[in-house]
Design brief:
- By secondary structure, this protein is mainly α.
- It has a three-stranded antiparallel beta sheet.
- A hairpin with a 3-residue loop joins strand 2 and strand 3.
- Helix content is about 70%, strand content about 5%.
- The protein has helices spanning about 10-30, 35-50, 65-85, 85-105, 110-125, 130-135, 140-145, 145-160, 165-170, 180-200, 205-215, 220-230, 250, 255-270, and strands at about 205, 235, 240.
- The chain is elongated and about 75 Å long.
Length: about 270
Amino acid sequence: LLTYIPTFQHFSKIKNMQDLLRDFKKLVTNEDNDSALSKFDEIKRMMVEMDSLPPICADGPNAESERELTKEALEYAVLLSLNLGDKDLFQKHISCLRPYYTSSSIDSELKNTILGLNLLFLLVENRLADFHCELELLSEPQRQHPAITFCTQLDKHLVVGAYDEVLAAAAHPPVAIFSFFLTSLLETVRINIGECIAAAYSQLSVTAAREMLMFSSDEEVLSFIGEQYPTWTVMNNHTINLLGVRPTKAEEIAAMRLITQNLSYATELERIV
């Protein structure tokens, strides 16, 4: 009977991986992005030589350690992608992490934060079907984690159009790294609020617009209007004139036709009853 005995080479490989990972995590935390990318390239070269990793998943004396170290490296690679502001890289690393989260029986410290980041990304991209599919894959304890409940609450606020609640929640994320995606979400929410303002008002003060859009200064309001709503006329930096401005969404609604249909449905229901 032959028994496999780990060699010094196997233990040395694990030690090298641990050293590289320690340095990589420090570089990501300090946002030294160029050095972190270089260090991650070294880690990837080591990963290629590990048969214990997906898709081969060969068992061995160090297989579990190699998988856990690789999982942690990929988690910090996700954080690195956010430091770089690279959404494509973020999606790539999330995809690489999936088999480790599915097969591992040990939850890492960052797992729920990473899952929350993915949910937030799907919300920002308006991929609501994917958002709810991902949510269904989570266990009940995971759904109770602050990083996950934050995303589910945001989804509810967006569905009912409670944009003030979205902006208020975005000001207090459970994890600082969430701010990367929240910036994009806030921009989208403010554009939606702007559409509502254009449909509801013919004239509005800059101060009132600042409160509705939840900006901290009039200068931010004027800059936002200049970029997103160039057809709005700002008079003396004090009053916004929206006369003649019709939002696209409002034009798409045939009000009289909808009223006629609803009255017709009500009449038919009354006859049935």
